[in-house]
Amino acid sequence: MKISERGLAFIAAHEGFVSRAYLDPAGVLTIGYGFTMRSRLFAAFWRARHGRSLVPGDRISREDANKVLLKLIDEEYAPPVAGVLPGVSQPVFDACVSVVYNLGARALSWRWARALMGGDKKSAAGLLAKTGTTAAGRRLPGLVRRRREEAHLLKTGDYGLASPWRWTPNAETRRIQTVLARLGFKPGPIDGLLGKRTRAAVRAFQRANPPLLVDGEPGPATMAALERAADKRKSAALTVLSSAATALGLFWQKHPAGFVAAAAAGVVAIGVAVALCWAYRGRLLKALSA
After folding, report:
1. What is the dihedral of CA 290, 140, 102, 229, to 10 degrees?
2. Contact indicator for 163, 149 with CB cutoff of 8 Å
3. Which end of the chain offers a freer environment for a tag, N or C, measured as fewer CB atoms within 10 Å?
């Protein structure tokens, strides 16, 4: 069994096309439609074309990427599905190939696949929707959406290729806005909508993080860069807190009385700050929403 045209478009839409090599959220060098050197066929194609492995900054044309995608699916990702799930309908086959393309053939040994092999499509869809939604220990909205839409395709046969996810509030866009705001790029309200202010903030982030393409689109490369920037900020904050705790501990050991006095002064200062914020809450809220 071969993947259908709609199945191919479904996978391409979820992977997103990136012409320049980038590090994905798990730190794996990626290009095109999620191609990595972990793929035997892509590695062979790339080495035959360039005489070496993929390196940051390498480029691929969309025409080449489309040819590679079809070859990868036909020769590397579809056969394992056909081998363990013979006789399934085309939408079910396409959904399973999408899962294998994203998670690897090992996913066919997981609970959702066993339920599908047993003929329980409803349970298989329910389990699939909760499977493989993390990368490098983080639950990613993009993976959550992909699993949900694969499960929907498996269960209903609806490819949903005209899904308006970017034009309705959704968790993936809220995550983008939240990270942009934490990094100081002012995406506007955290409303889950990919509007003008959010796109402007995405462009500002892209300009500040070359070699990202500055187009205002939060594609795979930009999303991966955002997650790495958020991780760096979090690590820096934890380092500062750890250093401060160490310094306070040393101060306490040498000057216990002074430590108590300093702690008391800190509590008073926090209380005064809270009281002032409450007293001027109207002005503060107006300023924050401006």
Report:
1. 70
2. yes
3. C
Distance from C-alpha of 88 to C-alpha of 27, rounded to nearest angstrom: 35
Exposed, middle or buried: residue 223 (CB in 10 Å: 0-12, 13-18, 19+)? buried
The CATH number of 5-163, from 1.20.1530.20, 3.30.1120.10, 1.10.530.40, 1.10.10.10, is 1.10.530.40
Is the CB of residue 148 less than 8 Å from the CB of residue 141?
Answer: no
- Percentage of the chain exceeding pLDDT 70: 78
List of residues 6+ apart from 33 with CB closer than 8 A: 11, 12, 15, 16, 17, 65, 68, 69
Check if the beta carbon of residue 277 is closer than 8 Å to that of residue 284. yes
* pLDDT score recorded for residue 25: 79
Residue 18 to residue 203: CA distance in whole angstroms: 16
Q: Which numeric CATH code is attached to 164-250?
A: 1.10.101.10
| Total-model pTM | 0.68
* Residue 282 burial (10 A CB sphere; 0-12, 13-18, 19+): exposed
